[in-house]
Amino acid sequence: MGGKETNDAISSAHDAFQSWSKLTATERSKRLRNWYDLLITHKEELAQLITLEQGKPLAEAMAEVVYGAGFIEFFAEEAKRVYGDIIPAHLGDRRLLVLKQPVGVVGAVTPWNFPLAMITRKVGPALACGCTVVVKPSELTPLTALAAAELALQAGISPGVLNMVMGKAADIGDALLASSEVRKITFTGSTAVGKKLMAGAAGTVKRVSLELGGNAPCIVFDDADLDVAVKGSLDAKFRNSGQTCVCANRLLVQEGIYDKFAAAFSKAVQNLQVGDGFGEGVSQGPLINEAAVQKVESCVQDAISKGAKVLLGGKRHSLGMTFYEPTVIGDVNQEMSLSREEIFGPVAPLLRFKTEAEAIRLANNTNAGLAAYIFTNNIQRSWRVAEALEYGLVGVNEGLISTVVAPFGGVKQSGLGREGSKYGMDDYLEVKYVCLGDMNRE
């Protein structure tokens, strides 16, 4: 598909908005709930589809379906909680009302690493508010998107309310940006593409929400519980073979625990089983494509050339194709691309630090600000460091922090706006002030 099909989808969404936005919140809620029920009913088939086209292990794919469906369930409930206000008036014969109304047609551009959940996290609140949506799923994982849309139709979500266009990314994006009928763009993906969308949205002054690249620090202090730190860091780094936007990109380890942590962490990584996502016990699938493997190889070679040491892995897996060995690199510093760029692969760089102040400085020394992780048994330190970190999400002694009920989003060049939780409704609503005059006349 390209520009023509996208414009057709926009017209369809614009027409459907007239009726969908007029439904009661209760009716929209029922249809979203039906969609949730169908997603759960078909969770095995959806998980198999995700593993087939994206590569993640089946257990992870199943977890994504449950997580992704959870957004539809949550926002089905939030649809009934879009409240306005009555403001005490400045004059006795006035009544001041604040209404919240749907933005209109939404253009949603979603990535390949969570082909279901990144759609439902955007579409759930949009439909709950009364918006209609044109989704451009990743051209690398279109089938999961089509399956989700088919289930939405079966759930009673009217044709035109949820539209899928896939194919020529640039043409589809240009059509979404150019259309005056599209009132909002929501995007999850790279910072570079996010900047282009933000600039392109200026032409028609669209609302924009962006969830962009990360460079997540994972800080392990001397006083951390070693077992907790190893498990949490492993979860944060190697989920989806390191292909998550909140993935621990840099492991900052205090010098007093560095050697113990490096040994224990490397041992844990060595036990990760790589293979076909349908294989028994497999926890690490392939990377998404050849370009992703080459990016990882480039970062690793850059680090080695500048003095870093490979503690484990460091090369393509013997399985071939786009499989890469789970890797741990020691003695990494700020000059290496492993510290400065989002790796998006199964490579864990270890950096030493001495003091808490140094850890905070190293962690914040990036344009990104999506997720960060801290491991410490010192309560005061956990508060100090969590507040000092320039990130939208912070996990303390926990490596898996994403949840439907909490706000997800970054600061600095990691994006604008929040998804999930009650705050996830805000970006899809316009606030309208209504002044009712001369209320005392009979």
Task: Write a structural description.
The chain has 442 residues and is of the alpha/beta class. It is 41% helix and 19% strand. It has helices spanning 3-20, 25-41, 43-54, 58-78, 117-129, 142-154, 169-178, 191-201, 226-238, 258-270, 290-305, 337-340, 356-364, 379-388, and strands spanning 85-87, 95-102, 105-109, 132-136, 162-164, 182-188, 207-211, 216-220, 248-254, 309-312, 327-330, 347-353, 371-375, 393-396, 415-416, 429-436. A 7-stranded mixed sheet has the order 10-11-12-9-8-13-14, with helices on both faces. A 6-stranded mixed sheet has the order 5-4-3-6-7-15, sandwiched between helices. Strands 1-2-16 form a 3-stranded antiparallel sheet, with no helix packed on it. The protein is globular.
Blueprint of the fold:
Layout: H1 3-20, H2 25-41, H3 43-54, H4 58-78, E1 85-87, E2 95-102, E3 105-109, H5 117-129, E4 132-136, H6 142-154, E5 162-164, H7 169-178, E6 182-188, H8 191-201, E7 207-211, E8 216-220, H9 226-238, E9 248-254, H10 258-270, H11 290-305, E10 309-312, E11 327-330, H12 337-340, E12 347-353, H13 356-364, E13 371-375, H14 379-388, E14 393-396, E15 415-416, E16 429-436
Parallel strand pairs: 3-4, 3-6, 4-5, 6-7, 8-9, 8-13, 9-12, 11-12, 13-14
Antiparallel strand pairs: 1-2, 2-16, 7-15, 10-11
Helix pairs in contact: 1-7, 2-4, 2-5, 2-6, 3-4, 3-6, 4-5, 9-10
